[in-house]
Amino acid sequence: MADTAQPDFDRIGTDTDGATDEAKPRKIRRLAIIGGVGALLLSAASYGGAMFFGLFSDDAPAASAPPVYFDLPEMTVNLSSIDQRPQYLRAKISLEMSDEKTRAAVEQVLPRVLDAFQVYLRELRSTDLEGSAGIYRLKEELVRRVNLAIHPAEINAVVFKEIIVQ
């Protein structure tokens, strides 16, 4: 057993191992500095993005004013029909808007708004008004027609107080 090689304890730490031990703290410091700079850049970019999109605005959220409603006169129109059987639509409609300026704009062109409604409603068939999808499409089209008539002002919605198809 005398032939077995004994480790040379005098040479431990004098090889390249010593250079590796000194390089480890440098690498750790370098990684820490790079990581810190990266984290700083990431947080600065996040803050800049939040400022750009207005997440940190100093303006207090404005209290929204209650909507303004404008009642249109009750409308009764005959609907288009294939079998020539008369069918009628009676509707009580109110327009929802955000302010009194829009209400004044509607009042100025009220005959034009009523004409647009009459022309459109007379072309409808009773099948066009079936179900909630039909009523929804009707509302959207009436909003579009009012907004065209009062441009550049806009209303928010058409509210049906009553709608009857006979």
TrEMBL record:
It is a single-pass membrane protein. Its main location: membrane. GO terms for biological process: bacterial-type flagellum-dependent swarming motility; chemotaxis. It comes from the Bacteria. Keywords: Cell inner membrane, Cell membrane, Cell projection, Chemotaxis, Cilium, Flagellar rotation, Flagellum, Membrane, Transmembrane, Transmembrane helix. The keyword Transmembrane applies. It holds the Pfam family FliL. The keyword Membrane applies. It is found in: Cell inner membrane; Cell membrane. The chain crosses the membrane at residues 31-56. Residues 1-21 are annotated as: Disordered. GO terms for cellular component: bacterial-type flagellum basal body; plasma membrane. Controls the rotational direction of flagella during chemotaxis. Belongs to the FliL family. This is Flagellar protein FliL.
